[in-house]
UniProtKB/TrEMBL annotation:
Residues 2-309 form the Choloylglycine hydrolase/NAAA C-terminal domain. Belongs to the peptidase C59 family. InterPro entries: CBAH/NAAA_C, Ntn_hydrolases_N, Peptidase_C59. Pfam families: CBAH. GO terms for molecular function: hydrolase activity. This is Linear amide C-N hydrolase. Signal peptide: none annotated. Keywords: Hydrolase.
Length: 327
């Protein structure tokens, strides 16, 4: 399933974070993809111009689900079941891409959200399955850059265009427009307490603090995760610096992180948060936090990597739980 959000800290640095919630073990890890690569995608070959880092896996070719490139453009792919509509073929003047290759193509070819608004008119997303899953993955995508501009791509017709995301949050189905309208249902919630009112001659006694957020949905459905993330993002106190901001983003994602076993599918398998990913778009750094080790593990794009390296590099994750004893 998945939840994603953008964040701007008090110093003006921009971040893109996400949970990766899925039952099938994806096996992603941090990967560096150099500039000027020819990638044999599942819908045909495509080329990249820019270097990027993100969560990837090398099967028949490298596939990415999120990351950040050398210009600070961040991207994340999230599940979009029953709403994604892909085409069978691409027009002669457009590049055909499999859904699971879109993230790599974007990070390798777009400098910004504004740049991508034009570039998406030159691609078509095709109904091509990914061998790992044996099906065509229904996806939509969130993009953000160091200007703070954030937009979503939802392939609900053959006409592809970016949709502005004013709250910088995305979950899963339905469409973003539905989620934004649904926010009005919760528009009276606030961080501050709301006073209780007596009924007739009966004086109500408080049940404790937290009445401002009374009614905030707590389940793991896509609409509830969207509302919860918007509320927590909006009212959380601003941070300064990368470590403090990453720490805050960890706390924001805590409310939508799914433990194994609490969200079962029809086949009895459990969707769970396999990892959480964090990109500092200004710093061009990327961090992963696997389910079994909550320590952030990151890589940072350097000028040397971009100018001198010409081969993809994988960075295996440490899955050992870390515990620190103080005595």
């Amino acid at each position: 399933m998945c939840t994603s959000l953008t964040y701007e800290n008090s110093q003006g640095d921009h971040f893109l974070a996400r949970t990766m919630d899925f039952a099938f073990e994806l096996g992603g890890q941090p990967v560096f993809m150099p500039r000027n690569q020819k990638i044999q995608g599942d819908a045909g070959e495509f080329t990249t111009k820019y270097g990027f880092i993100g969560a990837g896996r090398n099967l028949s070719h490298y596939m990415f689900v999120d990351g950040v490139n050398e210009y600070g453009l961040g991207a994340a792919a999230l599940y979009f079941p029953q709403y994604a509509q892909y085409q069978k073929t691409a027009p002669a003047d457009k590049l055909g891409l499999a859904p699971h290759d879109v993230t790599a193509w974007v990070l390798g070819n777009a400098k910004s959200v504004a740049d991508l608004r034009e570039l998406v008119h030159h691609i078509q997303i095709l109904d091509v399955p990914v061998a790992l899953l044996g099906l065509t993955t229904p996806l939509h995508f969130i993009f953000s850059d160091p200007t703070g501009e954030t937009a979503v791509l939802e392939a609900t017709s053959e006409d592809l265009h970016l949709i502005d995301d004013p709250v910088g949050v995305m979950t899963n189905a339905p469409q973003l427009s539905w989620h934004l309208q649904n926010l009005s249902t919760y528009g009276t919630m606030q961080a501050a307490e709301r006073p209780l009112h007596d009924y007739m001659d009966f004086s109500l006694k408080t049940q404790g603090p937290g009445t401002g957020a009374l009614g905030l949905p707590g389940d793991y459905t896509s609409p509830s995760r969207f509302v919860r993330t918007v509320f927590n993002k909006h009212y959380s106190l601003k941070t300064a610096g990368t470590p403090a901001t990453l720490n805050l983003l960890q706390h924001l994602l805590d409310s939508v992180t799914i433990p194994k076993g609490v969200k079962l599918k029809a086949d009895g398998k459990s969707d769970y948060t396999q990892y959480r990913g964090y990109a500092n778009l200004d710093e061009r750094s990327y961090f992963m936090e696997p389910y079994d080790n909550l320590e952030l593990q990151g890589i940072k794009l350097t000028d040397e990597m971009l100018t001198d390296w010409d081969t993809p590099v994988e960075y295996p994750l440490d899955h050992t739980p870390h515990v620190k004893y103080l005595n």
